[in-house]
């Protein structure tokens, strides 16, 4: 029996005031089950990135609630929110955001270092093998291809064993072949490690690999 890992209710978010006011999210509600791969699709400006940022607690909604793993996220103080971002969710971005002065292994371990947590090296090696980067852990980002850098970024997102992986156009900066590999790796990785994936994209072909597709337009969920 599946259980709900994430529940967002009546999320509203706007920017600006008066005539310049833009409503990025307009009463958005959704539920995601544990182990599910959900794709959120929409054109540029549809509100999908704003939604992802709120699900990851990188931004607060004007109103509405978010519950992840039974925790009421926005009732937390900022210090607790920072811990939520480090431990409950893992982020994969279009631009890999690797630190150039660190090796691949050091980049992967950054979330644990921020929490002064001891690394599970068996888990790290398992992740690296699953993602095909076990021979690249001592390399620096400039020594890696785009696809390899994105694999390192995925390992970094997963290293703290978060409940939910949030991926923002993770293939947008890659060629089509590398992009397909990354999507395949994300799908297999969340199944192997019993995690949940929410991916946003403007590309419906990419979204077809998901268990469920949610379409957002003008800040509202229009189809599911």
Largest sheet: 6 strands, mixed
How do the helices and strands follow one another from N- to C-terminus? EEEHEEHEHHHHEHEHEE
Indicate the CATH architecture: 3-Layer(aba) Sandwich
Q: What's the rounded overall pLDDT mean?
A: 88
Structurally, the number of domains stands at: 1
Q: What is the compact description of this entry?
A:
The chain is of the alpha/beta class and 224 residues long. It is 33% helix and 28% strand. It has one domain (4-223): 3-Layer(aba) Sandwich (Rossmann fold), CATH 3.40.50.
Structure description:
The protein is an alpha/beta fold and about 220 residues long. The protein has a single domain, classed as P-loop containing nucleotide triphosphate hydrolases (Rossmann fold), CATH 3.40.50. It contains eight helices and ten strands. The strands form two sheets. A six-stranded mixed sheet has the order 6-7-8-3-9-10, sandwiched between helices. Helix 7 links the parallel strand 7 and strand 8. Helix 5 runs antiparallel to helix 6 and helix 6 runs parallel beside helix 7. The longest helix is centred in the last third of the chain and has 17 residues. The radius of gyration is 17 Å and the shape is globular. It starts with a strand and ends with a strand. The mean pLDDT is about 90.
């Amino acid at each position: 029996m599946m259980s709900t890992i994430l529940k967002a209710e009546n999320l509203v978010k706007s920017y600006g005031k008066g005539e310049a006011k833009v409503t990025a999210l307009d009463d958005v509600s959704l539920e995601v089950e544990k182990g599910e791969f959900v794709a959120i699709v929409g054109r540029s400006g549809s509100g999908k990135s704003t939604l992802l940022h709120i699900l990851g607690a990188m931004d607060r909604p004007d109103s509405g609630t978010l519950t992840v793993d039974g925790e009421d996220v926005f009732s937390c103080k900022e210090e607790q929110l920072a811990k939520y971002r480090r431990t409950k969710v893992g982020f994969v971005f279009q631009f890999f955001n690797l630190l150039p002065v660190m090796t691949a292994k050091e980049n992967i371990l950054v979330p644990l270092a921020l929490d002064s947590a001891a690394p599970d090296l068996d888990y790290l090696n398992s992740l690296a093998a699953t993602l095909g980067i076990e021979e690249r852990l001592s390399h620096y980002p400039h020594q890696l291809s785009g696809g390899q850098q994105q694999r390192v970024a995925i390992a970094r997102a997963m290293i703290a064993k978060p409940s939910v992986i949030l991926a923002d156009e993770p293939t947008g900066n890659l060629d089509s072949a590398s992009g397909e590999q990354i999507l395949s790796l994300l799908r297999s990785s969340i199944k192997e490690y019993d995690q949940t994936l929410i991916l946003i994209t403007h590309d419906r072909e990419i979204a077809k690999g998901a268990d469920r597709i949610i379409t957002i337009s003008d800040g509202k969920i229009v189809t599911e």
